[in-house]
Design goal:
Shape: globular
Order of helices and strands: HEEHHEHEHEHEHEHHHHHHHHHHHHH
CATH topology of the largest domain: Rossmann fold
Helix content: 40-55%
Number of strands: 7
Number of helices: 20
Number of domains: 4
């Protein structure tokens, strides 16, 4: 079974529904109450603009009043209730949350302004990224009659909590002052987002039933002329992905570009697996190349997801590149790559994908000019945030974090970024301190090593 042609455009984008009428709707509930998700979201967006228009008129009158009266007689401007300004879609990766937002915007002839919360950890960075988006119009809005905007903030569960540098209060403040409706997406429930959950409407979105995923997959199989894949094989793909429609579509594209001469079940179970061994080898090879052509050859031979590879390179860049000038140049290329990928996603310019690769792979590794023939071993680290937005930990790190969380109610990020480094400071000069902490947390030998 071979594809009729190789496409640069990922099938998850090619077959992303443009309007809600083209979608299979996932079920959703608010609290324990089942709701019609699409109808609810449409009402939310339409209601937002009606309420905001009334509120803006009230505030215009208040401003006029304040300009003509003494300060002690000033009136406070009114603000929209938070649950009227933003909603949260919560559910596993790949079930269509982002697709719903874009399809809804197309239904209502709106423009989506998308950002990713997990890429912006601190209050200052978050404000810089979102303030102008949520509060003002762009310069072109004054030149042409532009579309209304819908703000999409993805991976909100990647934010630090209230006690970590103020990211959640910043989000709440932005919601309070936004001029556009906000839809946020989250992969899972997070304890440290409680203050957000209490003030906005949170939809628990379920994966599509297997039978719906099967229907969608069958349509793609027919359109792409994939042959030799039995119903049993397709059910195995669906079962393997556990409700992740995006994963199913990615697997179908992977199958279309290969051959089923070997064991079908083995091929399916190995699809989409960015194995640690392959990633490690790929990173090592990339940082050894000397030309852009060599860098392209390395990435072209790999089946690793481009977004996942981008995060691995970002995580390991400073392990290979040591000079500040070279690091600055490498990060500049990463920044440009990220900007290009934003254009690709927003405007569907998939012809730009090769330039994205050239910048984040070739442009980064070729920034490394100074090398020594007898270089020491480079430790390759897992990216802390994977392509799905989840915080990535090794098996031993996970066990250590879980034991810490039995004693203290903190998040994974708090444990790794703040708590474990503090424990290392305590134990690095005192074996007695290490033993006492190990006993307190009931650590085994492998977990204890993480504190040395």
């Amino acid at each position: 079974m071979v594809a009729q042609k190789t496409e640069k455009m990922p099938w998850v984008e090619k077959y992303r529904p443009k309007f809600t009428r083209d979608m299979a709707f996932p079920t959703a509930k608010v609290g324990r109450q089942k709701v019609d998700l699409i109808e609810d979201l449409k009402k939310f967006v339409i209601s937002f603009f009606k309420e905001k228009e009334k509120l803006n008129e009230v505030n215009r009158q208040i401003k006029i009043h304040n300009r003509t009266h003494e300060e002690k007689e000033h009136q406070e401007e009114k603000k929209l209730l938070l649950d009227k300004a933003a909603v949260l879609l919560e559910g596993p990766p790949g079930i269509g949350k982002t697709t719903i937002a874009y399809a809804l915007a197309n239904d209502l002839n709106m423009e989506v302004i998308e950002t990713n919360a997990s890429d912006t950890r601190t209050k200052g960075a978050l404000e810089l990224k979102l303030r102008e988006t949520t509060k003002s119009r762009g310069i072109m809005d004054f030149v042409v009659q532009s579309k209304k905007k819908l703000i999409l903030i993805d991976e909100i569960d990647g934010l630090y909590g209230v006690t970590d540098r103020g990211a959640v209060p910043t989000i709440l403040s932005l919601i309070e002052n936004t001029q556009f409706p906000i839809i946020m997406c989250s992969n899972k429930y997070k304890q440290n987002l409680q203050s957000l959950y209490k003030k906005i409407r949170r939809y628990e979105v379920n994966p599509l039933p297997d039978e719906e995923v099967f229907k969608i997959a069958r349509k793609i199989i027919v359109k792409e002329k994939i042959t030799g894949l039995s119903e049993k094989d397709l059910n195995l793909i669906i079962e393997k992905n556990e409700g992740d429609l995006r994963g199913v579509i990615n697997d179908l594209q992977g199958i279309s570009q290969g051959s089923l001469d070997k064991n079908v079940k083995e091929l399916i179970l190995n699809l989409g697996r960015d194995s640690t061994e392959e990633i490690f080898s790929l990173i090592k090879n990339l940082f050894q190349v000397n030309t852009l052509k060599e860098a392209r050859n390395v990435t072209n031979k790999s089946d690793v997801d481009y977004n996942f590879l981008y995060k691995w390179i970002n995580e390991n860049l400073t392990s290979y590149i040591r000079l500040n000038s070279e690091i600055a140049n490498a990060y500049e290329n990463l920044s440009l790559a990220d900007e290009i990928f934003g254009r690709i996603r927003k405007n569907q310019y998939w012809s730009l994908l090769p330039y994205f690769y050239d910048l984040f792979a070739g442009g980064v590794v070729l920034s490394r000019k100074h090398r020594t023939p007898d270089e020491i071993f480079h430790r390759i680290a897992f990216p802390r945030f994977t392509s799905t937005g989840f915080f990535s930990l090794s098996a031993n790190e996970r066990l250590l974090v879980e034991k810490i969380q039995k004693k203290y109610k903190i998040s994974d990020i708090e444990a790794v970024q703040d708590f474990i480094p503090f424990l290392k400071l305590l134990t690095e000069t005192s074996r007695k301190q290490l033993k006492e902490l190990s006993d307190w947390f009931e650590l085994d030998a492998s977990e204890k090593k993480l504190l040395k």
